[in-house]
Amino acid sequence: MKLRVGIIGMGVISKFYVHALQHKLSNPILTAVCDLSEERLELFKQDGIPCYQDYKEMLRRDDIDAVIINVPNDKHYEICRDALLMGKHVCCEKPMTMNMEEADDLVRVSAESGRTMFTAFHRRYNIHFVNALEQIEPDDEIVKVTASYLEKIEEHAGDDKWYLQPDRCGGGCIADNGPNVYDTLAFFLGHLEVVSADISRNEHGVDIEARVELVTASGVPVSVHLDWAYPNGEQKDVIIYLKSGRTIEADMLAGFTEFKSSLYHEYEEILLDFAAKAAAGACHGEDGRDAVRLVHDTYQVETMRI
After folding, report:
1. Could you give the angle at the alpha carbon of 116 between the alpha carbons of 111 and 120, nearest 5°?
2. DSSP state letters, 205-223
3. 110, 192, 232, 247: which could join 284 in a potential S-S bond, CB 3.0 to 4.6 Å?
4. What values do phi and psi take at 192, rounded to 5?
5. What CA–CA distance (Å, rounded) separates 36 from 269?
6. Could you tell me the strand order of the sheet in which 117-120 lies?
7. pTM for this entry
8. 267: Cβ–Cβ under 8 A, 6 or more apart, which residues?
9. b/e string for 242-257 if b means 16 or more Cβ within 10 A?
10. Distance CA 288, CA 36 (A)
11. What is the pLDDT of residues 148-187, one digit of tens each?
C-alpha cells in the first residue's frame, strides 16, 4: 500500500521533498500541502494539490497517512504530537524537538499510538558516506573519527530567517548542524557521550563555531567541528582512522558542484526509508531523541566548564 503524505511547511527544504515526490518516487504520494503563506501555496494550487493554511484542518483528512513536518524548530513538538494523536505517521526535520522533555514525550506518544516518529537525518543517506562505510572490513579497528560541518548559515537559511533566531532554532550551529553530525556518527559508531565543548559565540551570544569531543561506548575518540561562519563555501565530511594506518574519508559534497545539490538524492532516500519504517510500524523517535540528547549535553558541558 502506498503511503499518502502531506507536507506541513513549504520553506527552503521543502523543495527537496517535493522534487522527490513529484519527479522521482512512486511511493510515497504527495496528497496535500500546508503553509501559512498563500504565495508558497500558489504553485500547488495550480497543480490541483489540496492546500491548507491550518495544519490541523489538513490532519483531519482521512486520505493522508503521514505528514512531513518542515516548520521552524520551536513548532516541531506541538505539530508532531498533534499529528501522532491524529493517527498519522510523522517525518520531521531535525531536530525532533528543542529539549529532552519534549523528545521523551514524543517517543512515548509514538509508541502508544503505534505510529512512526521519524527524523529526517539526511546525511546518513549521503552516497559518499554510504560508500565509506562499505569500505570498513569486519576486522578493521577504528581508533579515531573526525567530522566537519562547516558553512555560512546565511547562505543556507535563504528566506527562512528563523534559523538565525535562537529562541526559534534552539541555539546556533550546535542546535542546527549538531543533530545531523551526531546522527551520522552514531549511525555507525553507536552510543556517544559528550566529553568537552569549546564554543565560540557572536555578539548576540549565539554559538557560531564549536569543537566538540565525544567518545563511543568502546572508548573511541570522536572530534566534531561545527561552523556557521565558514568563509570558504562549505565542507561536510567524516574521516575514519583505522588501527592499520588506513583512513577512510567521506567527502559528502564531492562531485556535487551545484549548491545543495547533494540533498536531492539524500531526500529521496529519506522518503523511501520513512515509507518502509511506516509500513513496518518501526521507529518511535529513538534516533531523534538521541540527537536531542547530544545537543543538550554539548551545551551542558560548556555550562559546567564555565
Report:
1. 130
2. S-EEEEEEEEEETT--EEE
3. 110
4. -120, 150
5. 27
6. 51-52, 29-34, 4-8, 66-69, 89-93, 117-120
7. 0.95
8. 16, 17, 19, 20, 120, 122
9. beeeeebebbbbeebe
10. 26
11. 999 998 877 677 777 778 888 889 999 999 999 999 999 9
Distance CA 65, CA 164 (A): 33
pLDDT per residue over 35-57, tens digit each? 999 999 999 999 999 999 999 99
CB contact at 8 A, 177 and 255:
no
Count CA atoms closer than 13 A to 187's CA, side-chain side.
20
Grid cell locating 305? 566548564
Please give the Cα distance from 38 to 247 (Å, whole number).
50
**CA–CA separation, 249 and 45 (whole Å):** 44
Q: How far apart are CA 298 and CA 210, in angstroms?
A: 9
- If one counts every other C-beta atom within 10 angstroms of the C-beta of residue 46, the result is 8
Residue 109, number of CB atoms within 10 A of its CB: 20
Q: Look-up: residue for cell 508532531?
A: 80
Query: 92 near 80, Cβ under 8 Å?
Result: yes
Among candidates 185, 153, 155, which has minimal Cα distance to 172?
Answer: 153
DSSP letter assigned to residue 80: H
